[in-house]
Design brief:
By secondary structure, the chain is α/β, with parallel strands linked by helices. It has helices at 16-27, 39-53, 68-82, 108-136, 167-186, 208-215, 230-237; strands at 7-11, 31-36, 58-62, 87-90, 139-144, 192-199, 248-251. The protein is built from seven helices and seven strands; from the N terminus they run E-H-E-H-E-H-E-H-E-H-E-H-H-E. Strands 3-2-1-4-5-6-7 form a seven-stranded parallel sheet, sandwiched between helices. Helix 4 (108-136) links the parallel strand 4 and strand 5 (139-144). Helix 3 (68-82) runs parallel beside helix 4 (108-136) and helix 4 packs parallel to helix 5. The longest helix has 29 residues, at 108-136.
């Protein structure tokens, strides 16, 4: 799918999924903006992906999605540089040191911090970009949620491991799906689309026990690779989806069935 030189911002663009999204955008003729709070990692990611793709249309911009002034500064810089912004991909993912605590060990202050930094950041970033999109006359917002925003966790897949699905993760990913629908409805008539993608588990050096437990819940492959999400992202960024609004695309090899 040709993205026709769209200027596309990916928050958390130097992260695990973000790098794959940036690479896919650039290789499909989009202008890919790595938006990240970590300047060093962001610059390193930019240079690495430019080398891997052989393309120059990958850029880095600093952003703190929980600071209004930082978001507004990024928007202003991109308008000055490119004259427009076509799409925002909300992909940043904050986790404090207690993020992975099991339910009975979670402290309220940690729950609130993780919820605010993730759901709150997605809201603030979407709000400020939507303000710009309204003036521009069009825009596209894509939120990265999760299968655990759609269904409750399948705790049985963690049997024999020390991991779990954190309660705050399920909370903000499910809330994000309704936030997406809220924004799609609220922004109706402004030519601003809001959709979401809910990935299944993406392999990132998980234990073999977990991988096998997970695969039993799927149709064929089991855990996904980063590249398996690119099709859904490109579709929602392209004109092929111009009449799709307020929807959620699940990419999970049948895990939620």
């Amino acid at each position: 799918m040709d993205l026709n030189q769209q200027v596309i911002v990916v928050t958390g663009g130097s992260g695990f999924l973000g790098q794959s999204f940036i690479k896919s955008i650039a290789t499909h003729n989009g202008i890919a903006i790595i938006a990240d709070v970590d300047d060093y990692t962001g610059q390193q990611t930019k240079e690495k992906l430019k080398t891997e793709t052989g393309l120059d249309q990958i850029y880095f911009q600093h952003i703190d999605i929980n600071e209004k002034s930082s978001i507004c500064q990024l928007v202003s810089q991109l308008i000055k540089q490119f004259g427009r912004i076509d799409a925002l991909v909300n992909n940043a993912y904050f986790r404090n040191e207690r993020f992975w605590d099991h339910f009975f060990d979670v402290q309220l202050e940690d729950f609130n911090e993780n919820l605010t930094m993730n759901l709150g950041g997605y809201f603030l970033c979407s709000q400020q970009f939507a303000e710009y999109f309204k003036k521009q006359g069009y825009g596209n917002i894509i939120n990265v949620s999760s299968i655990y925003g759609v269904i409750p966790p399948k705790f049985e897949i963690y049997k024999g491991t020390s991991r779990t699905t954190p309660v705050v993760y399920a909370s903000f990913k499910s809330a994000l799906l309704h936030l997406s629908k809220y924004m799609a409805k609220y922004l109706k008539g402004l030519n601003i689309r809001v959709n979401s993608i809910s990935p299944g588990g993406v392999y990132n050096n998980e234990s073999e026990t977990f991988v096998q437990n997970y695969k039993k819940q799927c149709a064929t492959k089991g855990m996904l690779d980063q590249e398996d999400l690119q099709g859904a992202l490109l579709f929602l960024l392209s004109d092929h989806s111009k009449f799709i609004n307020g929807q959620n695309i699940v990419v999970d090899d049948g895990f939620i069935l």
